[in-house]
Amino acid sequence: MSEAATLERQTTELVFELQQGRVFFALDEDLYPRDAIFGAAYLFVDRCWVFLTRPADGQVGVRLRAKDPSADEATLTALAGEFANELLNQVVRIRVAESTAQIREFYMAKAFFADQAQSSIDALLAELDAEELAEDDLAIEVPWEDPDA
Length: 149
Prior knowledge:
Alpha-Beta Plaits, 4 strands, 48% helix, 16% strand
């Protein structure tokens, strides 16, 4: 394997350390925005203890400690892999939100600043007001309209 291929493999995989019921990895904020890291960490708080640190400028250290003290190495490795997958999910979610922000803003502006004459709710209410609700073809008596009741 060439040196360039080895380097690429090292930078595309999440490198982590296992130690005494904990898994630790450092994330580069250039690759993973801080909001994505926080979002992934938040989704793991019910499964494990999550600790965030700042090992260096531009890096966020993530330490996951299993809530089960008997967690083995395979469980911790799976936990690190699931965190990495959720981290990628959060990055994609943030990027989609950024790329579609203008469209959402347009629809919100259209909804809030629509012309009142064109509002379909107002048109339906006006139609209901125009109907003769007093006439009932089925001749169902309404007790509150009968003065003798």
